[in-house]
Design a protein that fits this description.
Number of helices of chain A: 10
Radius of gyration of chain A: 21 Å
CATH architecture of the largest domain in chain A: Alpha-Beta Complex
Strand content of chain A: 15-25%
Structural class of chain A: alpha+beta
Oligomer: homodimer
CATH superfamily of the largest domain in chain A: PurM-like C-terminal domain
Largest sheet of chain A: 7 strands, mixed
Order of helices and strands of chain A: HEEEHEHEEEHHHEHEHHEHEEE
CATH topology of the largest domain in chain A: Phosphoribosyl-aminoimidazole Synthetase, Chain A, domain 2
Distance between the termini of chain A: 28 Å
Largest interface: A-B, 81 and 81 residues
Shape of chain A: globular
Strand order of the largest sheet of chain A: 8-10-7-11-9-12-13
CATH class of the largest domain in chain A: Alpha Beta
């Protein structure tokens, strides 16, 4: 689990920079009619036929966003695509293309980058997007990934963060906190492994949590589902940093307040039991955990009946006037202010 | 010259991640009609009204692509934008938007990032592009920049690398080698400074070279000039890695060979004299130096009269049949094969 045993090992310098990118992208085929020219020129060329174009970009940095001790490279490639597609889906758009740039040191053999690209291509296939650019450069240390995702949307379907109104219902897809608890399990096993490299971890009961961390999925289905339900979200965001941060973003952009109901927050039973095991409050995890890549959106109260009982979506709160502030209403009916997590990941430099 | 003296110093953690990006992007205004929504949502939104969309992305990594010992942060922000716009111009397109993501460690105070963004915004203003996205994240070491540039072009105006034909003339804009020699001068002065921090470098005679390295410009003007001359390039690329690599890219994509004439390569007198001083062959520098951000393109022979004597452009060679190979014809009329530089920048990891 904790090591990639590489059968063969080709040094990057054997291919050279241009040879490497040709090698990694040679199997990439373009499929979508909007993709005119993909990998292999100064810029990719697309044609969106008058629809609005969506563009989003993200960094994934070794030691900050992932740890190769337990993140297989194929999963990393998959996740790098997913986290960016999620941003396009969070605009209620259709993702169409991705561009992947990687910076790597000599530590990585060509075979490792092939694994990474296999994950990229798998995600591109499943989510029906074209990989239209690929740059490689050298890094003095570690593995750095930059992903740019492109998408399209009809103008009137785009869901910005800013359109929420007081009394709008707050809806979240799926369940929360599992990706973060998956990370906690993996971190614990890494310590066990360090202490005893022969230990065989039994992770069966944590499968769901670990999958949510290592192989997250983006909610491509929600945009189509909302269209079928005839619901236009008034505001929308994806949950990358944790529910509390995302709620604050929506409220700040929409100039509203929020009441979030603790008892309504959807948790998988596996999250509840692992939180007990780790002696952590599961609501705190749902609020601050992050990396769930679920969608969080607001809808007018008049759409309540369209969504009631839908197993993919939970109504967890409602917007208020801005002056009322942003609060969690606890199971004990206490009203606690919701505060952003801040920049937890910023570490002191060595 | 070699240090940014920061009068004030605000720690990144005082603002937090979301506070930081708000702070850095608060003065950014969008200007172009194609920009619908810029900074501040999950994705930027653009509308290109049926034109082809161009997208390009690049990494700039501290210790690989720049050295903060002599690169002022404002210049770095400027250059980060320029190198990406150059890719759009190399498609014969019009650059319209850029997205800047940065990863930084705690080593950098907020004021340093403000300097960087001042350079980004200056470039955006001069080149008439909107900054439509800005992500910040933490880095375990150093400063990492990812820039994505977007642009538009009419379908029939796009110049790919692949359209060159045997007998097409090879044209380069401006002059070559100055950026690389500027780097050599700066590297030498850094060593002098290390040995004697009180030394006052006299760099007046190197002004052009140093400017080409620290504050390069992209050839926004060429696309318009070619339009006025009624020239449609058959193939085009920008010179980021050096003339030899770019010629190989054009020939490989166009399935042609090339004869490049040494005596025709445009060199500034400052490059010739500094090459003598450093005892380096100036043709080697022009072939391998890189970072000139000039444009290299091919035109049909029938367009010769349109370009003859134009001070912005030099005819330096012609394409041949692929089977004839890619050669430099020296001043002594020797025929030498042109070989790519390979991955020079890939360093062993510490």
């Amino acid at each position: 689990m904790f090591e990639n045993s590489q059968e063969s090992r080709t040094n990057l310098s054997e291919l050279g920079e241009f040879g490497l990118i040709d090698h990694l992208t040679k199997d990439i085929k373009i499929k979508l009619p909007s993709t005119i020219k993909g990998v292999g020129d100064d810029a990719a060329v697309m044609n969106y036929e008058g629809k609005e174009t969506l563009v989003s970009t993200d960094f994934l940095i070794e030691g900050v966003h992932f740890d190769l001790a337990y993140m297989p490279l194929k999963h990393l490639g998959y996740k790098a695509v997913i986290v960016n597609l999620s941003d396009i889906y969070a605009m209620n758009g259709t993702a169409t293309q991705v561009i992947i740039s990687i910076a790597v040191s000599n530590r990585f053999p060509v075979e490792a980058l092939e694994e990474f690209y296999a994950g990229v291509q798998l995600a591109a296939k499943i989510y029906n997007v074209d990989v239209v650019g690929g740059d490689t450069t050298s890094s003095t240390s570690g593995f750095i990934i930059s992903v740019t995702a492109l998408g399209i949307a009809e103008k009137e379907k785009i869901a910005y963060r800013s359109g929420g109104k007081p009394n709008d219902l707050l809806v979240v897809t799926g369940d929360l906190g599992a990706a973060y608890m998956g990370l906690q399990v993996l971190e614990r096993e890494k310590e066990v492994f360090k202490a005893n490299p022969n230990a065989q971890p039994d992770l069966d009961q944590y499968t769901y949590l670990i999958e949510r961390q290592l192989k997250p999925e983006a909610r491509k289905d929600i945009s189509e589902m909302l269209r079928q339900l005839d619901i236009q979200p008034t505001s929308m965001i994806d949950i990358s940093d944790g529910l509390s941060s995302e709620i604050i973003h929506l409220c700040k952009s929409s100039k509203t307040g929020m009441n979030l109901f603790e008892e309504k927050i959807p948790l998988d039973p596996a999250v509840i039991s692992v939180c007990e095991e780790f002696d952590i409050d599961s609501t705190t995890i749902a609020l601050s955990g992050g990396e769930d890549y679920e969608l969080l959106f607001t809808i007018p109260q008049s759409d309540f009946d369209k969504i009631k009982g839908n197993p993919n979506m939970s109504i967890i709160g409602h917007m208020t006037e801005e002056s009322e502030g942003i609060h969690l209403i606890t199971r004990a009916n206490q009203k606690l202010p919701i505060i952003a997590r801040g920049w937890n990941s910023l570490k002191e430099e060595d």
